[in-house]
Amino acid sequence: MGLLLLAATACGPTISEFNARAYEQATSLKVEALALMDKATAPYAEHADAVQHLKTELEKAYEFAKGRPENEISARQWRILIDPDRDLLGGGSGRLEKAIRILGDVC
């Protein structure tokens, strides 16, 4: 029975043990993303650098997760977050840019 359980879990996706750097990246990026969204009423040009900085930091976090051993699940979660075809941070940043431009022109 123990051998069967080991065989069943050995082939599935894996996740690394807790990593303080990964945790710090995730929590910092959450705070940065929420703060940037709060600025969506100002002209985009005022925050273009911040949007690009956030995108770069998200890519770094993905690469870090992808490079850790036995961390397939976390890497896939980061990939989903930054995917430009999804409605999360990757897709959301493009919409955020548009929202900032539109609201900035109206306000």
Structural commentary:
The chain is mainly α. The protein is built from five helices and no strands. The protein has helices at residues 2-10, 20-38, 48-67, 72-82, 89-106. Helix 2 (20-38) runs antiparallel to helix 3 and helix 3 packs antiparallel against helix 4. The chain is elongated and about 60 Å long. The mean pLDDT is 80.
Whole-number average pLDDT? 80
Q: So what's the overall shape?
A: elongated
- Low-confidence stretches are none
Helical coverage, percent range: over 70%
Measured between the Cα atoms of the first and last residue, the distance is: 66 Å
User: Helix count?
Assistant: 5
- Strands, total number: 0
Task: Summarize the helix and strand pattern as letters.
Answer: HHHHH
Give the class from helix and strand content and strand pairing: mainly alpha
Structure, briefly:
With 107 residues, the chain is an all-alpha fold. Helices cover 72% and strands 0% of the residues.
